[in-house]
Design goal:
One of its GO terms (cellular component) is cytoplasm. It comes from Dermatophagoides pteronyssinus (European house dust mite). Pfam families: Choline_kinase. By secondary structure, the protein is an alpha+beta fold. The protein has 2 domains: 94 residues, 2-Layer Sandwich (Phosphorylase Kinase, domain 1); 122 residues, Aminoglycoside 3'-phosphotransferase, Chain: A, domain 2 (Alpha-Beta Complex), CATH 3.90.1200. Helix content is 29%, strand content 27%. It is built from 7 helices and 13 strands. A hairpin with a 5-residue loop joins β7 and β8. The chain is globular and about 60 Å long.
C-alpha cells in the first residue's frame, strides 16, 4: 500500500527523485470515501514533507461547476490554500502545512470565527473568479460566488495564531448563505469515527448553534 505514495512523490517532487524509496517515511492520515490522505517526509530535503491526497470513490463521482484545479490555482495565488506541487489522475501532492487540528468545541469559538471570517471575505470576493449575478423567476437576482462548502473542524489547522483551511474539493459557485448553513450544520457532525462511513450525526438540538451564536457570527461577517 505504501509503495505507490512513495513512487508518485518521487516522480513529481524533483528533489526526491534520487531518494531511496525506503528512506521516504509514509503516514496514513485518513482513508475515507472522498480521499486517502498521506504525509510523506524525507529528512534533509526541501521540501522535507509533502501531503498526498489520493481520490476515493466519492470524489470520482462529484459533479463540478467549475474545474477544481482552476479554483486551487487561484486560491494558491492569494495564499488561501497550500501550494500544489503536482496534480495527476489519481490525486495531487500538496505543500505540507504545519498546524494543529481543532476539536469541534475549539473551532466554534469567537477567536476562530474572526479568523475564519477574514478567509471568507477573501474567498467570496476573488477577483479572478468574480461573483456572478443569477436571475431567478420573477427577475429577482442573487449573487453567487466561490464558496468553500465544507468548513468544519477537521478541515482547519491552527498554527500559532494563523488559521489554515484545507481540502477545497467541494468548492464552487453557490449562494453565500449556503456557506453559512454548512458551517452551522457541520457542528452537528463528528468526523472522528474510524469505521465507514467515517462520520456520525449528532441530531440533538444542543449540538446546533442557537440563534444568538448564529446572529453573532453574521454580525461579525457583515
Amino acid at each position: 500500500m505504501l509503495s505507490f505514495p512513495r513512487s508518485i512523490c518521487r516522480k513529481y517532487i524533483s528533489t526526491w527523485r534520487n531518494v531511496n524509496p525506503n528512506e521516504i517515511q509514509v503516514e496514513l492520515m485518513q482513508a475515507g470515501l472522498s480521499n486517502k490522505l498521506f504525509i510523506l517526509s524525507v529528512p534533509n530535503k526541501e521540501p522535507s514533507k509533502a501531503f498526498l491526497r489520493l481520490y476515493g470513490p466519492l470524489r470520482q463521482t462529484l459533479a463540478k461547476i467549475i474545474d477544481e484545479q482552476t479554483i486551487l490555482e487561484v486560491l494558491t495565488e492569494v495564499k488561501l490554500t497550500a501550494r500544489i506541487y503536482a496534480s495527476f489522475e489519481e490525486g495531487r501532492i500538496e505543500e505540507f502545512l504545519n498546524g494543529q487540528m481543532l476539536t469541534i468545541d475549539e473551532f466554534y469559538t469567537e477567536p476562530i470565527y474572526k479568523k475564519l471570517i477574514s478567509k471568507l471575505h477573501l474567498l467570496h470576493n476573488l477577483q479572478k473568479v468574480k461573483p456572478k449575478l443569477l436571475t431567478l423567476k420573477g427577475n429577482e437576482t442573487v449573487i453567487i460566488s466561490i464558496i468553500r462548502d465544507d468548513i468544519h473542524s477537521q478541515n482547519a489547522l491552527i498554527d500559532n495564531d494563523k488559521l489554515h483551511l484545507v481540502d477545497y474539493e467541494f468548492s464552487g459557485f453557490n449562494y453565500r448563505a449556503y456557506e453559512l448553513a454548512v458551517i452551522f450544520t457541520e457542528k452537528t457532525i463528528s468526523y472522528t469515527v474510524k469505521e465507514p462511513p467515517y462520520f456520525k450525526y449528532n441530531w440533538e438540538a444542543k449540538h446546533y448553534p442557537d440563534e444568538t451564536e448564529i446572529g453573532h457570527f453574521i454580525e461579525l461577517l457583515i
